[in-house]
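User: Just a sanity check before I run the rest of the batch. Below are the structure tokens for the first item. I only need the designed sequence back.
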């Protein structure tokens, strides 16, 4: 399984009580024909790009056994990030 990082200017906020974790969907992300990426969050729209990471990152899940020993499982590999350098535009 592969994941992708999201790097944006500013912060991602939600008006839901569970925060971003509690939401099923917080944005629509579309890859355009020119290789750019378009992200829509509510009335905001940001244009960015898909960038390969210099070194891949691993997403680890911690496991604690009954005897207290700790191990980590690799859940995913992150090789790319969505990079949004500019603040989003407001679309009405």
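Assistant: Here's the designed sequence for the first item:
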């Amino acid at each position: 399984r592969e994941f992708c990082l999201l790097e944006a200017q500013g912060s991602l906020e939600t008006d839901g009580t569970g925060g971003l974790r509690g939401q099923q969907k917080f944005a629509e992300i579309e890859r355009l024909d020119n290789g750019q990426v378009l992200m829509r969050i509510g009335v905001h729209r940001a244009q960015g790009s898909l960038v390969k990471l210099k070194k891949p990152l691993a997403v680890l899940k911690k496991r604690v056994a009954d005897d207290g020993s700790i191990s980590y499982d690799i859940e995913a590999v992150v090789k790319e990030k969505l990079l949004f350098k500019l603040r989003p535009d407001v679309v009405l």
